[in-house]
Amino acid sequence: MITYKGIQINVVDNLYVKTKGLDSYITKEIRVAIDNNQPENYIEVIKYIIDYIVDSKPIISENQNIGYYSWLLQFRLDEDDNCYDLYEANADGSDLNKGCDTAISVVRQQGEICWQQNLIPLFPNFNQSVVISDGVYEGKDIEGIRYASPQDESGWYLITDDYNEDIKSLKMVHFYHVAFARPDILKYLALPFGYRFLMKGGKFEINKDEEV
């Protein structure tokens, strides 16, 4: 058991990580099932949610979504245990699964890419926007450039060889559409402002863009 911001976090029989004391904020506890990761990974997810609830004091309801960095979680009510279980979007966004292993994996991979470059990750938010050209959803090679942007924008511009140089042909879409359609580039999208990646033939190159 550990205490974080006055809330207990308990590992229960190595099956769940569950809060105790969060009900004073949202009338329920939060619980997440342990699957393929170590308990400390799930504890980090619970801490993220505690930060959100303690600092923002939101009203939480059944089936409410919450972004965990670059992935989507959802609160599902278990009335018998008076708690919300965490569910997450599956890899292609077609359904929700109990737990948060995909979310943990996405954040880990994004962090590793940045640390390999001696960079601090700047995780895009699940609801932020991304600018894309034709060919992105079709799986074509991509050049990604990240510009400093307002809070509701990720700053990413994702361009393929299908781009016709007409800025009016670019489309602004939600980050989650790209996350579900292009899992092959997802781990590069926490690179900070001023960086770019080039995908060509399945190989990736990362550079700082001095012009951004």
Description:
Helices cover 21% and strands 34% of the residues. The chain has 212 residues and is α+β, with helices and mostly antiparallel strands. The strands form two sheets. Strands 1, 2, 3, 4, 5, 6, 7 and 8 form an eight-stranded mixed beta sheet that branches. Strand 5 (65-68) and strand 6 form a beta hairpin. The longest helix is centred in the N-terminal third of the chain and has 18 residues, at 39-56. It is elongated, with a radius of gyration of 19 Å.
Largest sheet: 8 strands, mixed
Question: What form results from the Cα inertia axes?
Answer: elongated
Average residue pLDDT: 94
- Count every helix, treating DSSP H or I runs of 4 or more residues as helices: 4
- How do the helices and strands follow one another from N- to C-terminus? EEEHEHEEEEHEEEEHEE
Uncertain residue segments: none
Query: How much strand?
Result: 25-35%
Q: What's the number of extended β-strand segments?
A: 14
Question: Roughly how many Å is the radius of gyration?
Answer: 19 Å
Query: What is the percent of helical residues?
Result: 10-25%
Structural class: alpha+beta
> How far apart, in Å, are the first and last alpha carbons?
46 Å
Task: Label this structure with key terms.
212 residues, alpha+beta, eight-stranded mixed sheet, 4 helices
Summarize the structure in short.
The chain is an alpha+beta fold and 212 residues long. It is 21% helix and 34% strand.
Strands, helices and their partners?
Layout: E1 2-4, E2 7-12, E3 16-20, H1 23-26, E4 29-33, H2 39-56, E5 65-68, E6 71-78, E7 83-89, E8 96-98, H3 101-116, E9 129-132, E10 143-146, E11 153-159, E12 171-174, H4 175-181, E13 195-200, E14 203-208
Parallel strand pairs: 4-7, 9-11
Antiparallel strand pairs: 1-2, 2-3, 3-4, 5-6, 6-7, 7-8, 9-12, 10-11, 10-13, 13-14
